[in-house]
Design a protein that fits this description.
The complex is a heterotrimer of chains A (about 425), B (about 300) and C (about 600).
Chain A: H1 2-23, E1 31-38, H2 45-64, E2 77-84, H3 88-100, E3 106-109, H4 113-125, E4 129-132, E5 148-150, H5 155-174, E6 182-188, H6 191-206, E7 210-217, H7 225-234, E8 238-243, H8 245-257, E9 264-270, H9 275-281, E10 289-292, H10 303-320, H11 326-346, H12 351-360, E11 389-394, E12 397-402
Parallel strand pairs in A: 1-2, 1-3, 3-4, 4-5, 6-7, 6-8, 8-9, 9-10
Antiparallel strand pairs in A: 10-11, 11-12
Helix pairs in contact in A: 2-10, 2-11, 3-4, 5-6, 8-9, 11-12
Chain B: H1 2-35, H2 42-59, H3 64-87, H4 95-117, E1 132-135, E2 138-141, H5 142-164, H6 166-176, H7 178-183, H8 188-211, H9 221-235, H10 240-260, H11 266-280
Antiparallel strand pairs in B: 1-2
Helix pairs in contact in B: 1-5, 1-8, 1-9, 1-10, 2-3, 2-4, 2-8, 2-9, 3-8, 5-6, 5-8, 6-8, 9-10, 10-11
Chain C: H1 13-28, H2 35-61, H3 69-86, H4 90-112, H5 117-137, H6 139-142, E1 148-149, H7 165-184, H8 189-199, H9 201-206, H10 211-237, E2 239-240, H11 242-245, H12 248-261, H13 267-288, H14 294-309, H15 313-321, H16 331-339, E3 358-369, E4 372-383, E5 387-391, H17 398-405, E6 413-418, E7 421-423, H18 428-433, E8 436-438, H19 451-459, H20 466-480, H21 495-508, E9 513-517, H22 525-540, E10 544-548, H23 552-558, E11 561-566, E12 569-574, H24 576-581, H25 583-590
Helix pairs in contact in C: 1-7, 2-7, 2-10, 2-12, 2-13, 3-4, 3-5, 3-10, 4-10, 7-10, 8-10, 8-19, 12-13, 19-20, 19-21, 20-21
Classes of the chains: A alpha/beta (about 425), B mainly alpha (about 300), C alpha/beta (about 600).
């Protein structure tokens, strides 16, 4: 008898807990719920939190202007529901929760390409639209998912463009013929680093330049001395690196202490385009180039783009203080484009309407804060117009130096040595 | 000529890393050797030290050496507290209780740090420790050299302490033979507490030192903790010189294999070496002649109640 | 190898209810539509499998495997690589993967189980780290840190389902099989072996068990199920990478769930998973986001609290609450045993009367410890049913000789001949199988078991069948006169009982010779007398006895022959009367010429 009681008790407890979790999240009439997933805790939390800040500003802007579907006379407010995707299992669970419990019809995501793989699968199976604002691994859009739309740049574009910069611009500045240039490619080995790094390797091999060193390393590593020693051994003219904040800063610091000098250092994300770079390296971090989605100087954009950019900066400063970091820009623009071009024009949240609206999206270059336009490839749903820019840290300022249309200054290369910086 | 330069630089790097690793192993050795409890929270104690260093020097602007001094006292108290609250009740418990009590502690420490400081990678910036200096063709990173010297200093101080002070000798006695020490009138429980205190103190010191070299973040203790264990087991947990040498060896292994083999595999190399040595000689490389205690010998009982 | 014993009407109540719960879950499942809840249920089932598999090794047999998730990862990668790179259908691949993992676990086990407990735990962590790094390194093979993607539209024929339910059903099936297996351990030799080596490694060796072999086998079975779980996970997520399947966090979680529920029980890990996973998700959705890390910190605190105050988990708390005896693993079966206890005259395996063979012969054994010679060139032989005494002053080498004969320490030279076989270096389990049994001076009962179960372990030395072992045990217990204490836990037994238990355990192994190590120490004169009677009874069963003693009355009472050792050498041999008159013997004990009455 006692044991029966015990087993029943446990069963009841279980059911009770599950029910209570399940009960959470009702549909509040009148608001359009948008799900947002990003790593809010854990190692990549910094990036995730900034991304979500961008999302929030986009939501604010839409809501203050009267909401979506005003053309139909409805004017519904947007409501952002954020899920914490700190690792792959959490991403899956949160995606399910957002869809099932919170009843979101759309998920915009942030960072961690591996999460995007899993979340996109969940969205596809639940007929939920999935907007990838950041995840850049090529395979994300290569699986033929119908509900997935990627606004941002492909990893391969990141890499190819950066290598093109090296071949065309760097070679000229350091006065070398590309045929004679020695290029080293290093990257951290998670999804992000690997996809960009592998694409960079390929791009270098297809160019006249010589690939003298190619190495990946664990992003959580606490020591890169061996790698730097190998680099010193190879004496490259350019290093192309894909690094996260921790390893990027570590690399820089250890490179200094080992006396590793290189004429040009081109970062293909992620740390090199963040304010944390110059904070972490001080003046020693100057002259490093970084490829990123551009935060174009407003004057170089179209009128529409300029207005948007200025308003965004102002709102960011008011709400969070300070100059917006690139991650927030990316988050903001991705969400904003989606809200204005797809959601509003679709007039509804069901996936068919949204997909239909997606085919009609045609934002010209210059109208967005990061400069490039938006047009989704009908097959892969990749934004074919997505492209980044090359920055360089000059005097502690992140300055766009290439391509010329959007450049604010000329790149200064070769880099001075450690002592001279 | 070029490759010679690289080779020697690698050896220098290896020595410096080794010295650092030694510093973070001393504390563990003391605890492991004396109380025979495996402190799975060792890496996290180190992490706490690193955060304390960050708070003191970067947030509060205190001079790092002053902070180190105060920190050491705090850690001593920390160690005794942990011993009293968590360790003492489980000294006689089945082995897995010991493991999981310290694993639990590790998780608490790691996540409290996460709660307070978030996951950001923090840097402790000490002006004069930045950058490196050159001797001939070779680069010496200042912060690492300082850490290395601290390590040597700690080694000498500890050895002196263990040989020449009453408490130190009591600790050595308990480490060698609990029964023998008891019979000589040494209070075992007090000794355990002090050993923990000193062990944590060393680890805290290592944390301060490491914070000048590596970034500080909640999971930083994971890898270091394991390295410390490897070194302590290889070096013989009751032999501080052995640990120092063991640490230097591990440092060399890492430095050389990282260059020759692959950046990725350097950790695999010393883990593998660790496993292989353990299997061949379970008492460690320099584990010495100390008789291996049986597995579930209760530590709280007195001599008469417990005979091997 | 893995025989699953289904006992027709021997299901314990708990087992019946567990099956009912699983059946209920399986029936209710189709009505659950909410995918979020289904995801939770899947995780509960998956972690239940993993926690249970871990429980098999660590909870049941002892060694703390901290990096146990390594087998989960190997399984996940094996089946996935086979599928993605070689096109092997996952329905088959899952088993090939399990096979690979099991072999891997076996090989690792052979090396790692030689290590002391905390070294073992560390080595499992090191192994996990190594596999994590390797999985990230061999990118062409494993997808590296980018991970391995499984095609999500492959369909049921490839174990890829749109709905989550089939996965849950598969998981429930695996769980069912695993739990059934765990219950069957209650009445199997292997099950008893696990508990024996966990409770008392030394004693288990004397019972014919080889601890390393037992652990390796447990590790392999455990790894098999971990691997199944890993493959199922891979098919469910359609994506694996080193962080998710070789993660230390997961390893700690499964241990935590098992601990909270109660290690060493079958239901424990299940309860742990059922309670903790929904709680964790609740935490993450309500707290996790706003206060980063709070949930894991609370886990850490749970772990500490449970380990300090409730290390046998919720199961034992429930037990205590219902005022039962402290949780034993095999409670139901003893009640039945008591009822079925037979009444016997003698031991069913007594040796024939006219057997005058030499059962044990020691030839010139010597033991050197470095420069010290503890035993020098000692020889004697023993016939069926003979009782001899081995005496000598302290430090004479009696214990050393004893340990050599029983295989606990190797001799430096010389031979031990038991049952016709010659041994230069024999292990205790080998000698036990050869008919040489021993008792321990400081009694080594298997603490968490009852009297009957203790003796059953001994009986398993010579049989694989539970029924036979139990019958032998009952006969032996009756023989030594403790029939009324069959289901007493060892904590309830007196010193004298414990000594008799030592004898009973030794007897149950059906030996031809038993060596008694100061069996009288700690007994009152009355109890000593009883023990002598018992010893005589044993010798009447034609079992030879070697008695090491200090109490002379016992020697004079029971021994036909006495050997005297001094400084490692045999100085006298003869009847009791003869040796007490022996000048050398007197000198050895008293250091002078005086008569000892």
């Amino acid at each position: 008898m006692r044991r029966i009681m015990r087993v029943m008790l446990c069963a009841l407890l279980f059911i009770g807990i599950v029910m209570s979790v399940g009960a959470a999240g009702e549909q509040e009439e009148g608001n359009v719920k948008i799900g947002a997933l990003a790593p809010m805790t854990g190692g990549k939390a910094l990036l995730g939190q900034r991304l979500v800040q961008g999302f929030e500003i986009a939501v604010d802007m839409i809501n203050e202007a009267g909401g979506v579907w005003q053309a139909n006379g409805e004017g519904k407010m947007l409501e952002l529901v954020v899920g914490d995707a700190c690792d792959v299992q959490a991403a899956m669970s949160e995606a399910e929760r957002l869809i099932q419990q919170e009843k979101v019809k759309v998920i915009i995501d942030g960072h961690l390409s591996s999460n995007a793989m899993v979340v996109s699968k969940v969205c596809e199976q639940n007929d939920t639209i999935y907007i990838a604002t950041v995840g850049i691994m090529d395979p994300i859009t290569e699986r033929g998912y119908q509900n997935l739309f990627r606004v941002t740049v492909l990893a391969s574009t990141f890499a190819k463009d950066s290598v093109r910069f090296v071949e065309e611009c760097v070679s000229e500045k350091i006065g070398m013929d590309p045929k004679n240039m020695r290029v080293a490619v290093i990257h951290e080995d998670s999804g992000f680093g690997s996809s960009v790094g592998a694409a960079a390797k390929k791009a270098v091999e297809e160019s006249p330049m010589e690939l003298v060193y190619y190495q990946s390393y664990t992003s959580g590593t606490n020591d890169l001395t061996s790698l730097i020693m190998q680099l010193k051994d190879k004496r490259p003219d350019v290093v192309v690196a894909t690094q996260y904040p921790h390893d990027g800063l570590l690399f820089w610091e250890q490179a200094e202490s080992l006396g590793f000098n290189v004429p040009a250092f081109v970062g293909t994300g992620a740390i090199h385009s963040m304010p944390d770079w110059i904070e972490g390296t001080g003046s020693k971090g100057n002259f490093v180039c970084g490829y990123e989605l551009g935060f174009i100087t407003p004057d170089n954009l179209s009128a529409k783009g300029k207005a948007l950019s200025l308003e965004f900066r102002e709102r960011y400063d008011k709400k969070f203080g300070g100059f917006p970091p690139t991650m927030s820009v990316i988050g903001f623009q991705g969400a904003y484009t989606f809200f204005t071009e797809m959601l509003d024009k679709a007039g509804a949240t069901d996936s068919a309407a949204l997909r239909e609206a997606a085919t009609k999206v045609d934002v010209p270059a210059g109208d967005t804060i990061y400069g490039f336009g938006v047009k989704f490839n009908p097959e892969t749903h990749q934004n074919d117009r997505a492209v980044g820019v090359m920055y360089q840290w000059l005097d502690g300022e992140f300055t766009i130096v290439w391509p010329e249309d959007w450049a604010d200054a000329d790149p200064i290369l070769p880099m001075p040595t450690w002592d001279e910086r | 000529m070029e490759s010679n330069v690289i080779f020697i630089q690698l050896i220098i790097n290896g020595l410096l890393i080794g010295g650092i690793y030694a510093l973070l192993s001393f504390g563990l050795a003391l605890i492991f050797g004396v109380v025979e409890v495996v402190n799975f929270a060792h890496g996290e104690v180190l992490m706490v030290g690193m955060y304390l260093s960050y708070v003191a020097s970067t947030l509060l602007g205190v001079n790092i050496f002053v902070a180190m001094f105060i920190g050491m006292i705090l850690f001593f108290i920390f160690g005794i507290t942990v011993e009293r609250i968590i360790i003492k009740p489980i000294l006689d418990a089945p082995f897995f209780s010991q493991i999981f009590a310290t694993v639990g502690l590790a998780y608490v420490l790691k996540n409290v740090a996460l709660m307070i400081f978030k996951a950001d990678y923090l840097k402790v910036k000490i002006g004069y420790l930045e950058s490196s200096f050159q001797i001939g063709n070779f680069c010496f990173d200042k912060a690492r050299v300082v850490a290395f010297l601290l390590s040597v200093g700690a080694l000498l101080v500890l050895v002196f302490f263990l040989k020449n002070t009453y408490i130190g000798r009591a600790i050595s006695a308990v480490a060698q033979s609990k029964r023998g020490a008891e019979i000589r009138g040494i209070d075992i429980h007090k000794t355990y507490a002090i050993a923990f205190g000193i062990g944590f103190m060393c680890t805290g010191l290592a944390g301060f030192s490491l914070s000048t070299i590596y970034s500080v973040y909640p999971s930083v203790g994971d890898a270091f903790g394991l390295i410390a264990f490897i070194i302590v087991i290889l070096g013989g947990y009751n032999n501080l010189y052995g640990i120092f040498i063991g640490a230097l060896i591990i440092g060399q292994l890492e430095s050389l294999s990282g260059f020759i083999l692959s950046v990725h595999l350097k950790e695999v190399v010393y883990f593998l070496v660790f496993l292989i040595i353990l299997v061949i000689k379970p008492s460690g490389l320099m584990g010495g002649t100390r008789k291996m205690r049986k597995r579930f010998v209760p530590k709280n009982k007195t001599v008469l109640e417990n005979e091997a | 190898m893995k025989k699953i014993t289904l006992l027709n009407n021997r299901f314990s109540t708990a087992q019946k209810w567990l099956y009912l719960a699983i059946l209920l879950a399986a029936c209710v499942l189709p009505f659950v539509r909410n995918k979020f809840i289904l995801d939770i249920i899947f995780n509960v089932v998956l972690f239940a499998i993993l926690a249970q598999a871990w429980n098999l090794l660590t909870g049941y047999s002892g060694p703390v495997s901290l990096g146990h998730v390594v087998y989960f990862g190997v399984g996940a990668y094996s089946s996935s690589i086979l599928y993605v790179s070689f096109g092997v259908n996952p329905w088959i691949g899952i088993f090939i993967g399990a096979f690979i993992t099991t072999v891997f676990a076996g090989v690792m086990g052979v090396f790692l189980f030689r290590l002391k407990t905390h070294f073992f735990a560390l080595s499992t962590v090191a192994l996990l780290f190594i596999m994590h790094i390797l999985a990230g390194y061999y990118t062409e093979f494993t997808g590296g840190h980018m991970g391995l993607l499984l095609p999500i539209n492959a369909g049921a024929k490839d174990m890829v389902f749109i709905s989550k339910m089939p996965y849950i059903y598969i998981g429930l099936l695996i769980l069912f099989i695993l739990c059934t297996y765990m219950y069957s351990l209650n009445t199997s030799k292997f099950g008893y072996s696990l508990i024996a080596v966990r409770e008392n490694e030394e004693a288990s060796k004397a019972m014919g068990l080889q601890p390393i072999f037992v652990w390796v086998k447990a590790n392999m079975i455990s790894a098999f199920f971990m691997s199944l779980g890993g493959s199922l996970y891979a098919q469910y997520m359609c994506y694996i990478d080193p962080e998710s399947v070789f993660g230390m966090n997961m390893s700690v979680k499964i241990a935590l769930y098992a601990i909270i529920g109660g290690v060493g029980t079958v239901i424990g890990p299940l309860i742990g998973s059922v309670i903790m996973i929904p709680v964790e998700i609740l935490f993450r959705t309500s707290f996790g986001r706003s206060i980063t890390g709070l949930n894991m910190a609370v886990y850490g605190v749970f772990l500490i609290i449970f380990v300090l105050y409730a290390k046998d988990g919720l199961m034992s708390i429930c037990m205590k609450y219902y005022q039962k005896l402290k949780k034993r693993a095999f409670s139901e079966t003893e009640a039945m045993a008591v009822k079925a206890a037979p009444v016997l005259a003698g031991l069913p395996f007594a040796l024939p009367q006219n057997d005058h063979n030499v059962v044990l012969e020691i030839q010139n054994i010597t033991k050197n410890f470095g420069g010290l010679t503890a035993v020098q060139d000692f020889s004697f032989s023993l016939k069926t049913g003979e009782v001899i005494g081995l005496i000598g002053p302290n430090g004479a080498g009696k214990t050393t000789t004893f340990n050599m004969i029983t295989g606990f320490i190797p001799q430096s030279s010389g031979l031990i001949v038991a049952n016709g076989h010659e041994y230069k270096r024999a292990h205790p389990w080998v000698l036990c199988k050869a008919g040489v049994a021993r008792t321990f001076q400081l009694v080594k009962p298997f603490a968490k078991l009852s009297l009957l179960q203790n003796v059953i372990i001994g009986a398993f030395a010579k049989t694989r069948d539970y029924e036979e072992a139990r019958n032998t045990a009952l006969a032996v217990i009756d023989f030594v006169g403790m029939k009324n204490k069959l289901d007493y836990p060892t904590s309830k037994l007196t010193v004298c009982d414990l000594k008799k238990l030592e004898l009973a355990k030794a007897l149950a192994t059906k030996p031809t010779v038993i060596l008694l190590d100061e069996v009288m120490s700690g007994l009152t004169p009355m109890e000593s007398k009883d023990m002598c009677v018992l010893i005589k009874k044993i010798s009447q069963q034609n079992i030879a006895l070697v008695i090491v003693e200090h109490v002379m009355q016992v020697i004079s009472n029971t021994c036909e022959r006495v050997l005297v050792l001094n400084f490692g050498e045999l100085i006298a041999e003869g009847t009791y009367k003869e040796i007490i008159e022996n000048e050398q013997v007197i000198k050895a004990y008293l250091g002078g010429s005086r008569h000892y009455a």
